[in-house]
């Protein structure tokens, strides 16, 4: 009995844990990547369908069935991934992966963080919205202001509209967005109405009323 229990425990430890994660989003320069199949999480690493992530980053991607390899090119960078291998090649250099590329239900899955960083992009994890945030363009957010809300629906709506971004570990609201809210706030105050938002100085943190 103890022997069977030990074998069962070893199987739980040794067998890779894979789960579909339909609630995970991927943004590239604040635009949502629409995948044909849901991303998955394998042993703590997010994997996504290869073609959509490469194309969203502007890379050309090719599937080589004979060698079961994914080859992608962007400018002077070449990436080669092999199904079932935790070693990738980036412009001729070997790089270890946290999770192997694999084929699930006919779709080839690859790790987006590795792909994006290999192509020179900045990658962050937004835990509140469960989003992989990829930034490829050097945009100046110095005049954007901190933003905060506990309303996930409001937060995601403002991210999708481009009024809010997740950058360097925090949410930032655009100057035009804050300006429009400040104007609306002045109108509510002038009419002695309770505003649905608060702009809290000195950092002008935008907090929608819940």
Structure explained in plain terms:
The chain has about 210 residues and is of the alpha+beta class. It is about 25% helix and about 35% strand. It folds into two domains: about 15-135, Copper Amine Oxidase, Chain A, domain 1, CATH 3.30.457; about 140-210, no CATH class. It has helices spanning about 1-15, 50-55, 110-120, 150-160, 175-190, and strands spanning about 20, 25-30, 30, 40, 45-50, 60-65, 70-75, 75-80, 85-90, 95, 100-105, 105-110, 120-125, 130-135, 145, 165, 170-175, 195-200, 205-210. The strands form five sheets. A five-stranded antiparallel beta sheet has the order 1-4-5-12-11.
List the helices and strands and how they pair.
Layout: H1 2-14, E1 18-20, E2 25-28, E3 31-32, E4 40-42, E5 45-49, H2 50-56, E6 60-64, E7 69-74, E8 77-82, E9 87-90, E10 93-96, E11 102-104, E12 107-110, H3 112-118, E13 122-126, E14 131-135, E15 145-146, H4 152-160, E16 164-167, E17 170-173, H5 175-190, E18 197-200, E19 205-208
Parallel strand pairs: 2-14
Antiparallel strand pairs: 1-4, 2-3, 4-5, 5-12, 6-7, 7-8, 8-9, 9-10, 11-12, 13-14, 15-17, 16-17, 18-19
Note the beta-strand portion.
35-45%
CATH architecture designation of the largest domain: 2-Layer Sandwich
Number of domains: 2
Radius of gyration: 22 Å
Under CATH at level 1, the class of the largest domain stands as Alpha Beta
Globular, elongated, flat, extended or rod-shaped: what is the shape? elongated
Succession of helices and strands: HEEEEEHEEEEEEEHEEEHEEHEE
Organism: Aminipila terrae
Signal peptide: 1-21
Keywords: Signal
Pfam family, one: Cu_amine_oxidN1
């Amino acid at each position: 009995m103890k022997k069977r229990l030990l074998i069962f425990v070893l199987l739980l430890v040794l067998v890779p844990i894979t789960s579909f994660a339909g609630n995970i989003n991927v943004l590239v320069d604040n635009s949502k990547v629409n995948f044909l199949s849901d991303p998955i999480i394998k042993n703590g690493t997010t994997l996504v369908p290869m073609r959509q992530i490469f194309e969203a980053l502007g890379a050309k991607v090719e599937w080589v069935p004979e060698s079961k390899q994914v080859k992608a090119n962007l400018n002077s960078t070449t990436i080669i991934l092999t199904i079932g291998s935790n070693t990738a090649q980036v412009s001729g250099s070997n790089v270890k992966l946290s999770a192997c590329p694999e084929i699930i239900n006919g779709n080839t899955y690859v790790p987006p963080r590795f792909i994006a960083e290999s192509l020179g992009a900045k990658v962050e994890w937004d835990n509140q919205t469960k989003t992989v945030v990829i930034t490829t363009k050097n945009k100046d957010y110095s005049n954007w202001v901190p933003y905060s809300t506990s309303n996930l629906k409001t937060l995601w709506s403002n991210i999708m509209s481009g009024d809010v971004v997740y950058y360097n570990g925090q949410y930032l609201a655009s100057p035009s967005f804050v300006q429009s809210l400040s104007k609306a706030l002045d109108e509510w105050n002038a009419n002695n109405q309770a505003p649905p938002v608060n702009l809290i100085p000195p950092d002008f943190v935008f907090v929608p009323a819940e």
